[in-house]
Design brief:
Layout lengths: L7 H19 L4 H6 L3 H15 L1 H32 L1 H5 L4 E2 L6 E7 L4 H16 L3 E7 L9 H12 L4 H10 L6 H10 L4 H8 L2 H16 L7 E4 L2 E4 L4 H5 L3
Parallel strand pairs: 2-3
Antiparallel strand pairs: 1-3, 2-4, 4-5
Helix pairs in contact: 1-3, 1-4, 3-4, 7-8, 7-10, 7-11
Length: about 250
Amino acid sequence: MRTTLLTTKSLVRFSSLAVLGASFAVHPFASRAQQKSSNPSQAFEQQVIDVIMRHPDVLIRSVELYQERQKQERSQKAQNLARALQNDASRYVSGSPIFGSRSAKAYLYVFADFQCPFCAQVSGVIGDFVTSNPDVALVYKNYPIVSIHPEAMDAAAAAWAAEQQGMFWAYHDILYANQSQINESLLLNAAKELKLDLNRFNRDRKSKEALASIKADMELADSLGISGTPFFVMNGEIFSGAVNAESLKTRL
């Protein structure tokens, strides 16, 4: 999971309140300096500095508590969102490629990167699982990690363009089968192999709609706390890594 760093403003605000409370506990008459000073803000700042110097553990503990609270809040939001992906599925599956029935009782969301070798490894497993369980539909969400997979964004956009012509899953299979060769030539050849309208394909994959769709998937992933691929959500449960038919079955 990604760790959110404290901003300077948040840290100062939180630690100052904690340290101020500690200052009155340690020095109950410390406020006199502020009363005598012509600059209350400067006096308050000096109080904080004095307490930190004498009791650095107060600041350390206040930061630890703040980080723990932030972590718990992020985790709770992620869990609420994971449940919404199942309970309010129509909102989240709209516009995404779906393998299986759109009226399925359960949705298996996979967040994947076309250049991720682990995604390629599990693609067949989750496809077979959905085929064997007609009450489950597979929803594909893009999460290209361009920092390590430079062609991933272009591949995602090309797959989105293939979806506009009803050929996402066939295009998806070609990309994963030729993962080590993903480049502009492969993206075009795959479109030709599937007999797509190339003019429309090229226009769609470079469109603002394609980019907006991919960004929406990535923002959803970030809200779920995703930091790598493949990543899954099903029946309100968030999980990642290698999966098999049995482990998926237990989550139904």
